[in-house]
Amino acid sequence: RGRVTHFDAEVLATRGSQTELRARHHMERRLRQAIAAGELRLHYQPLAELASNRIVGAEALARWEDAELGPVSPVVFIKLAEETGLIIDLGRWALNTACQEAATWPMFESADGIRRRMKVTVNVSAVQLSQPSFVRDVAEALVDSGLLPRTLCLEITETAVIGDMHATAKNLQEIRDLGVTVALDDFGTGYSSLTMLRDLPADVVKIDKSFIDKIAVEASTDSVLARLVIETAHSLGMSVCAEGVETNEQAERLADMGCDTLQGWLISKPLAGSEAFTEWLPTAVLPEALGPRR
Ligand code: C2E
Ligand code: MG
Ligand code: MG
Ligand code: MG
């Protein structure tokens, strides 16, 4: 039999017939083994600060390449992990690994002239966030790695917190009390965005790529909404990161709108590991739109 391609794996993981169910169980078994054997990796996508024209950190993105299944998209295996409870172990591994690796990253001089360490942001699933042990897991990851709390940011997706808003908000507040920052990921893709801004303690809003795609189109609904999100976030004391920035035009529009940080292929694709990220840093060529406003 031939290799299961990426596409097949995706289809198999999401449909429900007998064969498909078996394939899903197979994938679940492989994922469980991969987590236990330490076969997952973290890739890092740089985050660029507009005002200072500097790289200020990176987002950790999980990668799984299975010997039989080939590379499986995180969209597929994270969903599977959430549905099977494997996300608890996977998430703890990602948190610990990201903290350990980021503790080796260089310092940089920020816009205010202070030397800081590069930030690392880690995606956190609602399933993790609802665990009573989650705050302790975060505290332990910091102690074990020696990373300063303010160097860590946790990304929470909007759809993920719709469940138990109260419990989530409580855990998030405790995490922020540790000094860790919180970002609302994929902002604008759910249906309760403004309520979220009111009810969830967060430091950063990440505007979803789907809004950024059409941001350079003059007076498009998306550019109006992006401006609104940036202004609202700022007036509530939060900063704004734009996801999936691919063109200079988008970066320029975002700079004009007062967006704080950019992430996307324009800066860099996710780099294949912590070392690849630190090796890339001195070679980084940042786009025109970044840098002190003239
Ligand atoms: P996300 O957190 O919103 O991450 C951004 C996604 O957009 C990443 O996809 C990234 O590779 C992609 N991306 C970044 N810039 C660009 C761009 O300019 N153009 C395009 N087309 N894409 C861009 P990726 O790595 O496939 O991850 C997908 C999702 O899987 C993530 O979305 C996140 O929700 C989830 N994920 C990944 N790693 C973890 C993890 O360790 N834990 C949890 N809970 N979720 C994770
Ligand atoms: Mg994210
Ligand atoms: Mg995102
Ligand atoms: Mg997104």
TrEMBL record:
Domain (EAL): give its ranges.
24-284
Q: Which residues of the full protein are shown?
A: 340 to 633 of 633
Lineage, top-rank taxon, reads Bacteria
Q: Where are the transmembrane segments?
A: none
Return the protein name: EAL domain-containing protein
